[in-house]
Amino acid sequence: NYTRMTDFSILNFENYQEYWRSFTTVEDFRYLPSHKTVGCIVRLGYRSSRPFYEEEQFHDVRKQVEQLRNPTVSTVLNYRQYFKGTDPALKALADREAANVQKTISTIIFLEITCSTGFSQSGYIDFEDSLRKCRIKAQGAVNWKAIFEERKMLKPSKYDLVYYDWRTRTIFSNHNESYKVVSDPQLGLLFSHKGDHKMVPATSRRNFFSGNVRRYMIKSPLYGFMILYDHRIRKKT
User: Fold this and answer.
1) Which residues of the chain have pLDDT under 70?
2) Which of 13, 45, 82, 161 is the S-S candidate for 148 at Cβ 3.0 to 4.6 Å?
3) Are 229 and 213 within 8 A, CB to CB?
């Protein structure tokens, strides 16, 4: 049972040789008598505060981390199991969770909430990306267990694909592993899916890219309304 199951830095190295050399310097091989001596210094932890793995450990930890980043449905916690209510928006998200985890569809959530100040905040949330960050306990991740249990409300944030604060008139946009945010002078906001390179338009007006997405507006006692954009991901052939 190795020390850090979520040591994502290990993904920076394609093989064990690259990983091992990251703990060494050119001076080590110039001034120390042998590779064996360099190896001893590395293993004793004098070169870095990072954990050092032997070759077998390296491959095991890398496999664990890759599984966290690209899980199968059978290996992940399904947050929809915590949904016991009747809210239509949460039910729609629960129904889409497995397909998003399997990456057969990609759902973007549009949400606008009114804050205690009376001003609104709105944003576009990548559902799969948000679920994954929750699983790995990333900084600022949404607590989807609490969302489905209705103990917390889903809210847009400046780390989502797009976030707009109506009080300060501040807008944030962020590319992520799945999407690039695109602003088009004619079509407005678009999301370019990095997997199949299809454009997902935010507008409800018919356009050249409308066939890439199915758009659902859902009335919700909890959220007022929520818009879901379902993009069916085209697999490479």
Assistant:
1) 1-7, 20, 23-51, 67-77, 236-237
2) 82
3) yes
